Amino acid sequence: MAFHKIWRCQHHTKNKKSGPRNAKCMAKVDVKIKLATFDTKRRDKYLQREVPLSAVIRIDDRHSHSTDSADSLRLLCGTRSTRQTLLRYFSEGMTPSEARRLHESKLSMEDDGPAKLANAALNPPQRTVYHWHSVWREACFGGTYIDPVLKLEEKASLYAAQGMSKLVGESVLYVKQYS
Fold first, then answer.
1. What does DSSP assign to residue 170?
2. pLDDT tens digits, residue range 17-55?
3. Considering only CA atoms, which of 78, 91, 92, 81 is closest in space to residue 131?
4. Rounded CA gap, 179 and 71, in Å?
5. DSSP letters spanning 70-111
6. pLDDT tens profile 91-119
7. 26-65 in b/e burial notation, b at 16+ Cβ within 10 A?
8. Do 67 and 28 meet the contact criterion of CB atoms below 8 Å apart?
9. Which of 18, 108, 116, 149 stands the most exposed, by the fewest C-beta atoms within 10 Å?
10. Dihedral angle sign, alpha carbons of residues 91, 96, 99, 103
């Protein structure tokens, strides 16, 4: 056997004891790729053909749940094209909430808009958008944490020129403007 992999529905019992995602779904895709050796060619009638059939793909599409409901669509993972679209919005200077709002408005204007809005592959949840933004920001700018006290120290001369003074206590930071 050169390769053997089984992909199961996300509602299968594997790694789940109970809960909404455990519907005991038996849908799966089973892929086997056999090596065409002298011994396997002797035993397998499909490998004995002139053009050997070395792959066996079994598809069991018996889902024990609805696959078109909004509840099942919201559990899908975001697609690569959706992620690239949102990353482009971030590069154009949008915040995660602005990018998400724009993306939702574009989806709602398309044909079959409500179904696309319910599909998490096309309209990812807020948490996913913020995660993609943090990954993008770290890749582009090198990190997400900026110490506000250090930023205030950098701008001290600018504040002084505008007639403000800064007071930094142990637990509180104040910027006071003199009139």
1. S
2. 777 677 788 999 999 999 988 898 899 898 998 888 999
3. 78
4. 58
5. HHHHTTSPPPHHHHHHHHHHHHTT--HHHHHHHHHHHHHHST
6. 999 999 999 999 999 999 999 888 899 99
7. ebeeeeeebeeeeebbeebeebeeeeeebeeeeeeeeeee
8. no
9. 18
10. positive
Q: Token pair of 23, please?
A: 């519907």
88-118 per-residue burial string, b: 16 or more CB within 10 A, e: under 16 = ebbeeebebeebbeebeeebeeeeeeeebbb
| Tokens, residue 114 | 């409500």
Which residue is it, tokens 């913020």? 130
Residues 6+ apart with CB under 8 A from 162: 177
Identify whether the C-beta of residue 17 lies closer than 8 Å to the C-beta of residue 28.
no
Our measurement of the distance from residue 81's CA atom to the centroid of its chain's CA atoms, rounded to an integer in Å, reads 11
**For residue 94, which phi and psi values (nearest 5 degrees)?**
-85, 150
Model pTM score: 0.60
